[in-house]
Design goal:
This protein is an alpha+beta fold and 600 residues long. Helix content is 56%, strand content 9%. Among the domains are: 1-47, no CATH class; 218-298, 2-Layer Sandwich (Alpha-Beta Plaits). It contains 28 helices and eleven strands. The strands form two sheets. Strands 5-1-4-2-3-6 form a six-stranded mixed sheet, covered by helices on one side. It has a five-stranded antiparallel sheet with strand order 9-8-10-7-11. The longest helix is centred in the last third of the chain and has 26 residues, at 572-597. The two termini are 29 Å apart. Keywords: Membrane, Repeat, Transmembrane, Transmembrane helix, Transport. Its main location: membrane. It comes from Halorubrum ejinorense.
């Protein structure tokens, strides 16, 4: 037990601090369990059993099935219709966003659901003049709660079912807890549509353009190249490399023509107007040393940077857009410099927003984080590549021309068939889901190469690494010992109150570590506690499962929260202010619902 508690403690510290990626931590734990077999009871076969677990296989398959729905463009089309139909009523807007986000997340992964909701919300905000901050956080919360409608709603449910099958011989059926999930979702929607709407702040002012949203007014200016400037005759790329200042040229205007990326090979001429991204200190250095004059009364706007809308004749159809770094993106930890971002993506980064903080200085040196919002200037072709790149979420676009809309009935039919076959127990869930993958590829809903990009491999490795840890916690008696402590700590309390305490504790833990880690660690303890106090163990399994999908207190507690953190311009404490009352409300509703439906 001491060895197991030591491994758990190290894992928790690494999960919270993220000194290394959480999936790497999970694999390291798995290796440690096998190496320390005499003390952990986990041999090599058990150690790698997580890769063959029905939970891991099912989660992998559901990622690909969700990709089939995403590539069809179904949710985007519904979102566009909602934006058109309910764009004139704040109440209808909020309810439509909550309904679409929560309802859809019950059947496809909630991360792509929120990726679709971000541009939808921004479109509504642009058309109606409301703040996107008022809708993005509710959309994330609703997607989180909507995942509790079915077994396949989240990877957490599937993992909890696997643990429940091992401990109680009671895996979840497809719609085992749909009734309770619907009550929980409706409770969350009711709260967010009433009390919550007044608590959600308006961090981004309604109607602000991207230049204003990213506080660019003081960092964008125009400068005219004098005839005696040393820059004349040099290329912009060579000039930037030689300058020891934090500045970028984002647009070149010459003889009423606007040039944008790629600017590196462009030669500088006398009389050129350079649109610069820099701060006042670096600007003064440039003006003094490089033969530049500030353009009189220069004020750079969204319209000017959108070259196709500029007063001057555009050479390329540049636009100003916001993209969000996906929580599972491969570029996380890289810098704009190490990525060679400007050359690799043919786009200029003007600012980075991280939550409520906007970064303008030394951007090339800052490692990217999941949820970062980048203000970029790029051509429509480049923007299309960003829209198709799973590393990024394009925050200003609802539809793409390459959606396979003709496959919508096929993709939906395959997903319905997978769910029905599993629900009717014609096939087991892993087999049904894997059959769905074959059907998606054969019918052209998902291309073979897209299967691998669709899977969040960090989640797969996390599950595979954590499953043997749950086995070790049970086999070594660590779960029973913790249950003894829990029983002593709750002596005199009724089973219903103990159930509620487990819900609240799991919910708190989930806000700082992975929800899947919470399930693996807490379910064995919850089951042992229930047995010791003579309560229904399955009720305790459900309490932990539901609590693990209600990380509403912090932006880092759940991937969807992280995705809306920067686009909404939220402060870290905003999530606690809105989420704390909701967390308490859900604790009461969920505990009462479990007691009524399953008994304690």
């Amino acid at each position: 037990m001491a060895v197991i508690f030591g491994l758990v403690a190290v894992a928790l510290v690494l999960f919270v601090t993220e000194l290394v990626p959480v999936d790497v931590t999970a694999i390291a734990v798995m290796v440690a369990l096998v190496v320390l077999e005499p003390w952990t009871g986990v041999d090599a076969a058990v150690g790698i059993s997580g890769f063959a677990s029905p939970a891991t296989v099912t989660v992998l398959a559901m990622f690909i099935l969700s990709e089939g729905i995403r590539q069809s463009g179904l949710v985007n089309l519904v979102g566009a219709a909602i934006a058109d139909r309910f764009g004139d009523s704040p109440n209808k807007q909020l309810l439509a966003v909550l309904g679409l986000s929560g309802g859809t997340a019950g059947f496809i992964n909630n991360t792509p659901v929120v990726a679709i909701m971000i541009p939808m919300v921004n479109t509504i905000a642009e058309r109606t003049g409301i703040s996107p901050s008022k809708l993005l956080m509710p959309a994330s919360f609703a997607a989180m709660l909507g995942g509790m409608l079915t077994l396949v709603g989240t990877s957490t449910n599937i993992l909890a079912s696997d643990v429940s099958a091992r401990l109680l011989d009671h895996p979840f059926s497809m719609f085992e807890f749909t009734g309770l999930g619907l009550v929980v979702l409706l409770t969350g929607v009711a709260y967010l549509a009433t009390v919550g709407r007044y608590l959600v702040p308006e961090r981004i002012a309604a109607g602000d353009g991207l230049v204003a949203e990213f506080d660019m007014a003081e960092y964008l200016t125009e400068a005219v190249v004098r005839e005696d400037s040393p820059l004349v005759g040099e290329t912009i790329g060579a000039s930037l490399e030689a300058l020891d200042v934090d500045a970028d040229v984002v647009q070149l205007i010459r003889d009423d023509r606007a040039f944008t990326e790629p600017l590196g090979p462009k030669e500088v001429h006398a009389g050129d107007v350079l649109v610069l991204r820099t701060d006042r200190e670096n600007l003064l250095s440039l003006v003094d040393a490089e033969g530049l004059d500030l353009a009189p009364d220069a004020e750079v706007t969204d319209e000017q940077l959108d070259a196709d809308e500029a007063a001057v004749e555009p050479v390329t159809d540049q636009s100003l857009v916001e993209i969000v770094v996906s929580p599972e993106a491969s570029v996380i930890g890289e810098t704009l410099e190490t990525l060679f971002f400007r050359d690799r993506y043919d786009a200029s980064v003007l600012a980075i927003r991280r939550g409520e903080r906007v970064i303008h200085a030394r951007m090339d040196e800052r490692p990217l984080r999941g949820g970062d919002a980048l203000l970029i200037q790029a051509t429509e072709t480049t923007i299309g590549r960003f829209a198709a790149d799973r590393d990024f979420v394009l925050a200003r676009e609802l539809t793409r021309p390459d959606f396979r809309t003709s496959r919508i009935p096929v993709a939906v039919g395959i997903l319905v068939a997978v769910v029905a076959l599993a629900a009717l127990e014609v096939l087991t869930i892993p087999v049904s889901a894997l059959g769905g993958i074959v059907a998606m590829v054969v019918t052209g809903c998902v291309k073979p190469g897209e299967m691998y990009d669709a899977v969040d491999w960090s989640v797969i490795l996390l599950l595979a690494g954590l499953i043997p840890l749950g086995v070790a916690v049970e086999r070594t008696g660590a779960a029973a010992w913790l249950a003894d402590v829990a029983v002593v700590g709750t002596v005199g309390l009724s089973p219903v109150l103990v159930l509620g305490a487990f819900y609240l504790f799991t919910a708190l833990v989930t806000n700082v570590i992975s929800n899947n880690a919470s399930v693996v660690l807490m379910i064995p303890v919850a089951v042992e506690t229930a047995v010791q106090i003579g309560a229904n163990p399955f009720a305790f399994v459900l309490a932990v499962t539901f609590a693990a999908s209600s990380a509403v207190l912090t932006p880092i507690g759940y991937q969807t929260n992280l995705m809306v953190y920067a686009p909404g311009g939220y402060e870290f404490t905003d999530f606690f202010r809105v989420g704390a009352p909701l967390q308490l409300l859900l604790a009461v509703v969920t505990t009462a619902g479990i007691a009524v439906l399953w008994g304690v």
